């Protein structure tokens, strides 16, 4: 696990976007795992700027969203199908046919989850999974006590997660109570993981994920077992890391050819 600590949230997005751009340049048909929420927005904005100036071609890139609310209308601006279309597919000029989101409106939810797993496998798996982290350590919507072997499934959102997401809705009561999410087992099968976090509200979760025990009470701690993980965080999100100075020194002294 490589931890990169940067001065500002804006720099987090720029560096993470550079890493993704490097992947797409090497592999134009890369498969990306797409996170929603506020954490990755700066990444998508930076990638879109590269697409607009002609320095990055994403026309062959495929994407799989991490999650979707259950029961929310597809046309609702905060459905993740709508968010991914608005924040990723259109600005990055992706082929909409190559971008998939779990079907939270399916009559048979379990079958929809199985189809989603099959689609990821059929695409050859995810090359790089973008992740955020919740204040309680969740990734995707894998709340505390989620199984490390879990696959795409329906989950009940905790009150804390619903409260955190209420800012995206007109009233707290509008926040859905259930979602479909890729499981921790599904996420762990991505060839590379890239987690970004910004702000003091994420500091405790980042420290638990990086330096705490591997435990289902902090789902993000499973990242410690993955062979290729990069965490890019700002100073505020790094505030509780005991080895922050070591991480800064390690990154500053990497050979130039290893720099992101």
Describe this structure in words.
The protein has a single domain (2-251), classed as Rossmann fold (3-Layer(aba) Sandwich), CATH 3.40.50.1360. The model has no long low-confidence stretch (mean pLDDT 95). Helices cover 32% and strands 16% of the residues. The two termini are 14 Å apart. A seven-stranded parallel beta sheet has the order 1-10-9-6-2-3-5. It has a three-stranded antiparallel beta sheet with strand order 4-8-7. Helix 1 crosses helix 2 (41-52). The longest helix has 18 residues, at 9-26. The protein is globular and about 55 Å long. It has 260 residues and is α/β, with parallel strands linked by helices. Its EC number is 3.5.99.6. The record marks 146, 153, 155-156 as: Part of the allosteric site. Keywords: Allosteric enzyme, Carbohydrate metabolism, Hydrolase. Residues 11-227 form the Glucosamine/galactosamine-6-phosphate isomerase domain.
């Amino acid at each position: 696990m490589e931890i990169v600590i940067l001065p500002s949230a804006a720099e987090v997005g720029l560096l993470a976007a550079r890493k993704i751009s490097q992947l797409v340049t090497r592999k134009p048909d890369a498969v990306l795992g797409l996170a929603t929420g506020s954490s990755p927005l700066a990444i998508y904005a930076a990638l879109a700027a590269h697409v607009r100036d002609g320095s990055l071609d994403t026309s062959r890139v495929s994407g799989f969203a991490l999650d979707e609310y259950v029961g929310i209308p597809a046309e609702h601006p905060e459905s993740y199908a709508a968010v991914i279309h608005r924040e990723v597919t259109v600005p990055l000029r992706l082929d909409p046919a190559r971008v998939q989101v779990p079907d939270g409106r399916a009559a048979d939810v379990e079958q929809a989850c199985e189809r989603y797993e099959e689609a990821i496998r059929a695409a050859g798996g995810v090359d790089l999974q973008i992740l955020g982290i919740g204040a309680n350590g969740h990734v995707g919507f894998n709340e505390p006590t989620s199984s490390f072997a879990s696959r795409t499934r329906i989950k009940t959102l905790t009150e804390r997660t619903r409260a955190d997401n209420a800012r995206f809705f007109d009233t707290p009561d509008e926040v859905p109570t259930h979602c479909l999410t890729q499981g921790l087992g599904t996420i762990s099968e991505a060839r590379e993981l890239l987690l970004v976090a910004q702000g003091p509200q994420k500091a405790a979760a980042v420290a638990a994920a990086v330096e705490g025990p591997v435990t289902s009470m902090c789902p993000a701690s499973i990242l410690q077992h993955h062979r290729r993980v990069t965490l890019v965080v700002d100073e505020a999100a790094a505030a509780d890391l005991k080895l922050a100075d070591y991480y800064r020194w390690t990154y500053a002294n990497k050979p130039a050819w290893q720099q992101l």
